[in-house]
Amino acid sequence: MTIDNKKLLIFDFDGTLIDSVPDLADATNAMLTTLGKDTYPIDTIRNWIGNGSRLLVERALVGKVDVAEGDLTVEEADHAEQLFFEAYTKIGGSKTIAYPDVDSGLKKLHAAGYTLALVTNKPIRFVPKILQTFGWQDLFSEVMGGDSLPTKKPDSAPLLHVCTQLGIIPDQAIMIGDSKNDILAGQNANMDTLGLSYGYNYGQDIRELNPTAAFDHFADLVEWIMQTNA
Ligand SMILES: O=C(O)COP(=O)(O)O
Ligand SMILES: [Mg+2]
């Protein structure tokens, strides 16, 4: 499998560059505790991440990944989401870490002349501080959150918006992520996609989504891009 002529690398955030599950799990459980509900182990909460904080909160309230219409009222979910935001703001990413070789890998790709962008389903308000914590704020030419546009991944809109903003056609972009939402968004945008197996994908192997290629380590992905994209 080869790729060529790529200029833009669009990265997912949670589960791809950073392991944010410990903080997201703490914030989720703090919200549940405030509401007098049972808390959940981190391994359960990991499988509820990927579609933004609203769905994470709703999944935690009903205790399962599939939330049916009518399971919750809008008011209930609004209130719980507010509590989650307060808890996550207070926690402030204290247990969030970068995956191995992400820092050096991003810098290597940036130095090689690639344009880097970030498209996460996380609400945008939480993103700048985390980027700053890792010193990545100047690496990304465009940063989109799950609430930056009316639709989020797996919709192609945030990816296509980034391309338009940067004046780069989708054919010259690659979407890189850990979740089916990333791979589907990339495929919906007619982009090549690269999967990473170590993140959060509802317990499913990312290879089942048929990305252009998949890797178990970030360093291997960086090497592959540098070698195959002439
Ligand atoms: O907030 C989420 O649900 C996941 O965020 P991500 O798109 O950066 O993986
Ligand atoms: Mg992710």
SSE topology sketch:
Elements: E1 8-11, E2 18-19, H1 21-34, H2 42-46, H3 53-62, H4 74-91, E3 97-98, H5 102-111, E4 115-119, H6 127-133, E5 140-144, H7 157-166, E6 173-177, H8 180-188, E7 192-196, E8 213-215, H9 218-228
Parallel strand pairs: 1-4, 1-6, 4-5, 6-7, 7-8
Antiparallel strand pairs: 2-3
Helix pairs in contact: 1-4, 3-4, 5-9
Bound molecules: 2-phosphoglycolic acid (PGA) and magnesium ion (MG).
- Main sheet specs: 6 strands, parallel
Give every kind of bound small molecule, once each: 2-phosphoglycolic acid, magnesium ion
Count the E strands: 8
Strands ordered across the widest β-sheet = 5-4-1-6-7-8
Give me the Rg, rounded.
17 Å
CATH topology value of the largest domain: Rossmann fold
- What percentage of residues falls in helices of 4 or more residues? 40-55%
CATH class of the largest domain: Alpha Beta
Domain count: the total is 2
Assembly level: single chain
Strand content: 5-15%
Order of helices and strands: EEHHHHEHEHEHEHEEH
Q: At CATH's second level, what is the architecture of the largest domain? A: 3-Layer(aba) Sandwich
Shape summary:
globular
Question: Could you give the distance between the termini?
Answer: 13 Å
Structure notes:
Pathway: Organic acid metabolism; glycolate biosynthesis; glycolate from 2-phosphoglycolate: step 1/1. The protein is of the alpha/beta class. The chain has 2 domains: 8-20 and 96-228, Rossmann fold; 21-91, Orthogonal Bundle (DNA polymerase, domain 1). Helices cover 41% and strands 13% of the residues. It is built from 9 helices and 8 strands. The strands form 2 sheets. Strands 5-4-1-6-7-8 form a 6-stranded parallel β-sheet, sandwiched between helices. The protein has a two-stranded antiparallel ribbon with strand order 2-3. Helix 8 links the parallel strand 6 (173-177) and strand 7. Helix 5 (102-111) packs parallel to helix 9 (218-228). The longest helix has 18 residues, at 74-91. The structure holds 2-phosphoglycolic acid and magnesium ion.
